Amino acid sequence: VLPRQVDSAEGFEIRAAIESVRAAPARVRLLRDGTLRAEQEIELQSGTNPIVFRDSLRARGNHTYELLVESSSDTLAENNLLQGVVEVKGPPRVLLLSTQTESQRVIARVLKVQGYAVVESAPDVHALRLAELSGYDLLVLDNVPAFRLSHGKMETIEKYVRDLGGGLLVIGGAQSYGAGGYFRTPLERVIPVDMRPPARLEMPHVALLFVIDKSGSMGAGSEGSTKLDLAKAAAVAAADIMNPTDQVGVLAFDASWDWALPFRQVGKGEWISERLASLQSDGGTDLYKAMVEAHRAIGAKQAAVKHVIVLSDGLTDKADFQSLVNRMARDGITISTVSVGSDADVQLMAEIAKNGKGRGYVALDPQTIPQIFTTETLLVSRDLLIERPVAPSIVASTGPLKGIPPDPLPLLRGYVLTYPKPRAELLMRVEKDPLLVAWRYGLGRVAAFTSDLSGRWGKEWVVWEFLPQWASQLARDTMRKIIATRMRTEFLAEHDSIRVVADLVSPQGNFLNQLKLKANITAPDRSSQERGFRQTAPGRYEGNFTPAQRGVHLITLFAEQGAEEPLPIATIPYVAPYPKEYRELKPNLPLLNRLAEETGGEMLDAEKFTESLKRLYTPTPGLGREGRETWWPLGAAGLFLFLADLVSRCWPARTVSTAGPQSAQPTRT
Questions:
Q1: Can you say whether the dihedral through the CA atoms of 350, 353, 357, 359 is positive or negative?
Q2: Of 201, 372, 506, 516, which one's alpha carbon is 20 to 30 angstroms from that of 319?
């Protein structure tokens, strides 16, 4: 038993009851947010064993508790874990994910001064579990590339905004939006700007060469998802976003090199997948020979942009890479590198990228290879990064920009090129391109700022006197908004389903009636379902749902308002326990009695089991008069029928003709 909501630093009790069918020693562990908080060694008695822990919380948001019971005498491990969620009240809570150094996280310092409780973390370090994320009012991505987030984390962010009504603020930079690999990811669906700007008339002609390691180690992984499979899929996806007149080639290498795909125009691109399908992993690793061939081939191409992307997951023989890369750079060829896994020579690959005036990536997770390839392709084939002094302007002085003086706004030294999606609100722009765009996505709100808030592009912005007001209003406009209400929720089990009873009262004490109340119910596997609620009494609404699986289900109540945006009310956790058969360990005696009576049997006394079993196999006088063996007459009858069947099959059959004699007919000639 846990309190659903507590104040910061308030002490509270965690009560549990452990059922045991016999006396046994046990160890009870209490975990909070995955970390061990307390542990007790106890002696369980037959029956119910109460246990109490005490704890307090300071950080606002949702905290998950787990109670784990371990005993050597236990035969069912499925019913040894219980979960619960406690919410801590407090100021608005913000989770900031950033790849910037602490001194560059200007947005974090500004929001803290404005009274927000800001938690800072790196994108690849934070687990981003939905139950924990639901306790934040706003998520800020500060110049975060997509390949620092797994696909599952990006789907969690989408669920947080769409189904739980959370707010998302995306701050730009050189590793964000199209330049950060957001293209064709769940993040692109959430954000109000498109990652792939329309092609401009002055687009340069591009020659792009993929140099891909196909040594034996690239075959690691499950069938269809090996490192080489992902590299081939990445090359196809990258070619798909190039202009039809651009040229692309794929040079594969192990101990030697081989043209898997000689240079040719992209066209419609279907042929690329067919040509790469036969590429198999085998052999050693010799990158230098492949780089020499790459220099020869791409150096002869007539193109404004000549770019090489090198991918390898292993060590290569020593060679004079620096001289080779310098010659390629003098010939106008840029080189980016992708090191896959921890076995690659990351230092060598980084030096090649630096001397080749490109970018170096480390893909510890091979699943990020397609995002890296598409990012590189967009960067070299499109002018995504606009780096020159530009003057921003306010389009609409409403909402987050209310009270911000429109002139003069500080200059920006660059931004990421995007364009707003349909239905998005354009709030600020630079020249004809969007700078600040917002929209509603599901129950939540998303804002996208396409420049950065650090020293590279936003040097003048970080010292702007109105930055605290601008950042605070933008955060407040984007963060989760809920109806001001006092609510009490009750969960009632009805067979396999759960009935949710919610009582809603306004802050003034009046019942909230006639609401079109619905709920988004998100399961632990991130699947979701929508359920309608009906009003059953003044201020009381009820609805049913069936838990999809064991674990924490997040129920977000919201009120529809016709054509207006729906208003979230609250997100309530419901913990679905293990199945009923693991909770009720005592036998169902009425059912067993009924089964025995209807089948002519009887219930055996467990305390006198030996005597009952002996009586079961002892004949009752008067019911059976004599025993007689019946197998031999049945066996004889079966043998007789078998022999008769053989005789009938072998008996000669006589054929009787019923046709009369045929008379000869004269023949005429």
A1: negative
A2: 372
| Domains of the chain, residue spans | 5-88, 94-118+130-197+386-478, 206-382, 486-580
CATH topology for 486-580 is Immunoglobulin-like (2.60.40)
275 has a pLDDT exceeding 70:
yes
CATH class of 206-382: alpha beta
Residues 449 and 193: their CA atoms lie apart, in Å, by 10
**Could you tell me which of 293, 269, 266, 281 has the C-alpha nearest to residue 211?**
293
Residue with token string 């064993």: 49
- So what's the pLDDT on residue 669? 34
Q: Which CATH architecture has domain 5-88?
A: Sandwich (2.60)
CATH number of 94-118+130-197+386-478: 3.40.50.880
> Letter for the amino acid at 173?
G
What stretches of 134-247 show up as alpha helix (H) in DSSP? 151-162, 186-190, 227-240
Residue 250 has phi, psi (to 5 degrees) of: -130, 120
The mean pLDDT of 250-279, rounded to a whole number, is 82
Please report where in the chains the tokens 């590429």 appear, as a residue.
279
C-alpha 215 chain-centroid distance: 31
- The residue assigned the tokens 């956790």 is 573
The reported pTM is 0.70
Q: Where are the beta strands (DSSP E) in 21-116?
A: 24-32, 35-44, 47-56, 61-70, 81-88, 93-98
Is 400 in contact with 473 (CB distance < 8 Å)? yes
